[in-house]
Amino acid sequence: MRILIFIFAIFLVSCSKQDIKISQGGGLSSEALKEKIVVLNIWADWCPPCIVEMPYFNELDQQEGVVVLGFHFDQFDVLETEEVNRLLRKLKVEFSNMETDPRDIWGMEIPVHVPTTYIIKNNQIIETLITPQTYESLIEATEI
Hints:
Strand order of the largest sheet: 5-4-3-6-7
CATH topology: Glutaredoxin
CATH class: Alpha Beta
CATH architecture: 3-Layer(aba) Sandwich
Shape: globular
Number of domains: 1
Strand content: 15-25%
Structural class: alpha/beta
Distance between the termini: 43 Å
Order of helices and strands: HEEEHEHEHEEH
CATH superfamily: Glutaredoxin
Number of strands: 7
């Protein structure tokens, strides 16, 4: 019986490993995200269409079964978390922004341009959207 309890405890700890650090604080488990549709938005403050999309992603993040994550394009090389958080507040971003490089989680390449949005199911990128999105196009892409 003790062995079963020990194995169960290890299982619980491994499932809750937070391997995604969030810019605004805290973390998420990519394993736990398998049961959700993840919408990863690669954005930049110098990208006008990205700024226009922000309210759509805020609204989409309220949908059951969907998790919206952002990642500022300049975080791939130069932008520090403190500056990202300043921009998030300025742009009134309500969804979580990753501090962890998404390439480390989903094995993607750096996108060629922004905005780029990835639709992820079962921790696999199933669609890449390379044009500015509307709320309606995001709903359609996530099949809600």
